[in-house]
Amino acid sequence: MDRKTTHSKAWLFVLPVILLVAFNAVIPLMTVVNYSVQETFGNNVFFWEGVKWFEAILTSDRFHASLGRQMLFTTIILLIEIPLGVAIALTMPKKGVWVSVCLVFMAMPLLIPWNVVGAMWNIFALPDIGLLGRTINALGIDYNFTSQPVAAWFTIILMDVWHWTSLVVLLAYAGLNSIPDAYYQAAKIDGAKPWAVFRYIQLPKMKRVLTIAILLRFMDSFMIYTEPFVLTGGGPGNSTTFLSIDLVKIALGQFDLGPAAAMSLIYFLIVLLVSWLFYTLMMKDEAK
Amino acid sequence: MRNTARFIPAVYIFLLMTPIYWLINMSFKTTNEILGTFSLWPNEITFDNYITIFTDPTWYNGYFNSLSYVSINMVISVTVALPAAYAFSRYRFLGDKHLFFWLLTNRMAPPAVFALPFFQLYSAVNLFDTPLAVALAHCLFNIPLAVWILEGFMSGIPKELDETAYVDGYSFPRFFVRIFIPTIASGIGVALFFCFMFSWVELLLAKTLTSVSAKPIAATMTRTASSSGYELGLLAAAGTLTIIPGAFVIYFVRNYIAKGFALGRV
Question: Longest Cα pair distance anywhere in chain B, in angstroms?
């Protein structure tokens, strides 16, 4: 870290990146800010409204409801995917052909387009033609995700666990692989129990990759749109309408640009704030 | 205990493959069989669904469109990320840390927030409905990611390499292209892999920025699902075909994935 040289021309190296990202980020963001403070009745005529939309969104029950659903969803999938991913990574072999086989198959769900994931789970979980739906109903449980909110939640969570646990596995596995053999030998000599090896050797060494895993899973699950949209369309009722689905409904469905823009900014700020907290904690750790 | 643990990855992979198997199973069935009977494998295998996709231009063009914007995006992202990552890993300059975090914030922007402004922006610059528009839009999250990964890899290369090259009389561009890039080849591979992954799976922006001539395959599927009723077999076949490029790419980078996660900062 401290071996870096001060070099003011380094900005030239970064310039292409800044220009491209700014084109994609700053201009649209300014558009959103612009809409968020104005009212329009069409014909490109806009009226200044100040913070009216922000107040409306922050006090609206609809926003609170979708934010609540979003937080519940993100919490549940983090609580399942992180421990499960670590557990699977711990049982993976260290060397051999089996490693490649594991990696190739486990990474597969990560590379399937998100709407295909939704469509695939739709035909997998439908109670009449899907393997999962049929099996659950055959066990005597009445299950139909298109009409029961609980079943819809169960299906979406199962789908997300299926879709993303592998990312945690791959990250945790990479962290485990970076532990030198000498650590394990020392633990063996000391007669350490498997739990002690995990708690005092493996877990600390995985800390960085796990922080990254939690950060990535938090950001992506908080932005989830396509998979639940294809699977349930936000329903039954509004039971699986997460923030992004609600936002697209307001912006493109009802074309309420002002409220949609205000909601976009609030939404973005929430993701940004939580991610910044994670990032700062992570960097603090690395500096040590 | 050791032996039972060994089965866990196998069980996990089995569970992962089950929904994929069901999709492939459906793709070889006729619509009548899908809706009429329930069976774990097709009773009479039909290739009609695949034949439709390979003979109908609205279908197979979808694959070309998707692959073309993904490739353009991979090339752009990694090309501009290389010098930037080098600067972040080697130099200290005004605002470097803030800039790095600002780049990462774009990875955190929900695509739903940007869908409408992107539509207006790319219409204004006359790029709407071209693969280039989608490729550029995907740069929003892929460039920060590529910079992040490459910076991790480059920081793992000792600075002595750069210094020795200068002593040997290499100019900077020659050093960068001839020595540095080959040294971090595996990092570039990993960055390309992640750019492929996130560009290939994203749909919200890709769908917003295209209408007819650059429509991605995944969007073609959505249209079919809604307009022509319930052609599940066709849908399943199209879905199965979208899995293949991904599987292909993973196979090539399999040895770098684990290493890439550890060295790079992803």
Answer: 76
Locate tokens 């300059």: which residue?
B93
Q: What is the fold, at CATH topology level, of the domain defined by B56-263?
A: MetI-like fold (1.10.3720)
Question: How far apart, in whole angstroms, are the C-alpha atoms of residue B17 and residue A223?
Answer: 26
Residue A209 structure tokens: 């990759």
Q: Do A115 and B250 touch (CB under 8 A)?
A: no
Report pLDDT digits (tens) over A52-97.
Answer: 778 887 888 888 888 999 999 999 999 999 999 999 999 888 777 7
Q: Give the range among A18-22, A91-95, A226-230 with minimum mean pLDDT.
A: A91-95
pLDDT tens-digit series, residues A121-142: 988 988 888 889 888 988 888 8
Strands A5-6 and B91-92: what pairing?
parallel
Contact between B202 and B138 under an 8 Å Cβ cutoff? The reply is yes
Chain A window 2-31: which residues touch B at a Cβ cutoff of 8 Å? 3-8, 10-11, 13-14, 16-18, 20-21, 23-25, 27-29, 31
> Full-prediction pTM beyond 0.80?
yes
Q: Measuring CA to CA, which residue among B59, B117, B88 is closest to residue B238? A: B59
B224 Cβ partners below 8 Å, 6+ apart? B231, B234, B235, B238
Domains and CATH numbers, chain A: 62-252+271-287 (1.10.3720.10)
